[in-house]
Amino acid sequence: MNRIYFDNGATSFPKAPGVGEAVLDAINNVGGSVNRGLSKESMKSEYVIYETREMLCELFNFSHPDNVIFTKNVTESINLILKSFLKSGDHVIVSSIEHNAVMRPLHILEGQGVEVTTIPVTVEGDLSLSTLEASIRDNTKLILMTHASNVTGTVMPIESIGQIAKKHDIRYVVDGAQTAGHRPIDMTKIDCDALCFTGHKGLLGPQGIGGFLITKEFAKALSTYIEGGTGSKSDSVEQPSYMPDKFESGTPNVPGIYGLNAALHYIKKASVESIHSKEEELVDYFLAELKRKEIIKFIGASHAECRSNVISIDFIGYDNAIISSELIHQYNISNRCGMHCAPMAHKTFGTYPQGTVRFSVSHFNTKEEINFVITAIEKVLEAY
Ligand SMILES: Cc1ncc(COP(=O)(O)O)c(C=O)c1O
After folding, report:
1. What is the 3-state secondary structure (H, E, C) of 252-267?
2. Cα(151) to centroid of ligand 1, in Å?
3. For residue 295, what pLDDT is reported?
4. Which of 9, 39, 162, 267 could cross-link 32 (Cys pair, CB 3.0–4.6 Å)?
5. Is residue 150 lining ligand 1, measured as CB closer than 6 Å?
6. For residue 201, which atom of ligand 1 is closest to its CA?
């Protein structure tokens, strides 16, 4: 039985055509270290890296390629920003559906005197903008918001939050882990100070490459996070203050960037708008099929337009872990069960501690695959 892949919220599969070849090309043919040699191979890799920064700018409507910083993933990007910016006595606002990539570093920072306010989100995924605005204090330095929940797929009102942040002169960071590559993102419209992304989910690239795009003003307000060799100003022990070197120490993940570059070329050609409308159609179809089944409680918004590519189900009266495992082992359907690294979101949605079974589509999926999943769910429940 062929594998049917519905775990794109964890990591996308398949990757964009050409990604594997590009990674291999970097390993087999580049050799030279970027910014640290004059060979034509080193120069070529510098070109590919710069082009990747430019393509990310084009995708997210941002105009400063030097302010595109590469990290391992969105987790590292968020850690870097939070820990380089927030100090004891500062206050930060987040939603109640954030991933542990946000909540764990904040938990550490709370122990160091940073104050954290969590704005509740309803089961339908609504966040009250007036509650958020009312929670702003004199010492509020940052608002950090996920663009879409990785548990329910609910899309947050990130543009309205951006307006509130600007009005109060508070820095604003968006976690684009679940939306980058899945739907158009316009940094200018959101008016955020930084957008964090990960290469291996909707961007259809390899694992181990991610980053963030950051405004010049916000970049200046951050201290360095990891200091070391940059291949520039090598006669000095001082970390360069210019971008991107300020935040990019050590040899970068060149194969990862080559893979991401190929993925971005694919997304550009396919168009993120088309990818989004195909995924929206699939999610709507999936939701409509599920709605007919009364024993299933799917959580979050009921229409695909308020959702990303994620559908989470609580099989009431059943053990979600058993259902998930049966679907994987008997029907070869990749899905994910449990907390999805977001325990606070499950407390918000009333699915703690049982968690949910999550299906997350990509535009490579088909309605036939969804039909297969629905039939498999019915059979697993019958045999339970
Ligand atoms: C909303 C959200 N933020 C952050 C992350 C962390 O992503 P990564 O593991 O690529 O750093 C995820 C991953 O599932 C996520 O869904």
Report:
1. CCHHHHHHHHHHHHHH
2. 11
3. 56
4. 39
5. yes
6. 10
Q: Hunting for tokens 């969105």 — which residue is that?
A: 74
Residue 258 has pLDDT above 60, yes or no: yes
For residue 99 and ligand 1, the question of a CB distance below 6 A is answered with: yes
| Angle, CA of 255, 258 and 261, to the nearest 5° | 150
Left, alpha or beta for 316 (phi > 0: left; psi -120 to 50: alpha)?
beta
How crowded is the C-beta side of 5, counted as CA atoms within 13 Å? Answer: 12
Confidence (pLDDT) at 37? 67
At 189, is the secondary structure helix, strand, or coil?
Answer: helix
Task: Tell me the DSSP string of 288-329.
Answer: HHHHT-TTEEEES-SSGGGB-SEEEEEETTS-HHHHHHHHHH
Name the amino acid, one letter, at 382: E
CA distance 33 to 45: 8
Report yes or no: 262 and 21 within 8 Å, Cβ to Cβ. Answer: yes
Q: Which of 196, 198, 309, 348 to mutate to test the pocket of ligand 1 (most atoms within 8 A of CB)?
A: 198
Q: Is 74 in the pocket of ligand 1 (CB under 6 A)?
A: yes
pLDDT digits (tens, 9 = 90+) for 122-136: 877 889 999 999 999
Percent of the chain with pLDDT over 70: 98
Alpha-carbon distance of 314 to 321, in angstroms, equals 10
d(CA 361, CA 7): 7
Task: Retrieve residue 133's tokens.
Answer: 């605005």
- What average pLDDT does the segment 94-113 reach? 97
- CA 275, CA 201: separation in Å to the nearest integer? 13
Ligand 1 centroid, distance to 201 Cα (angstroms): 9
Mean of the pLDDT values across residues 318-325? 93
Does the beta carbon of 154 lie inside 6 Å of ligand 1? no
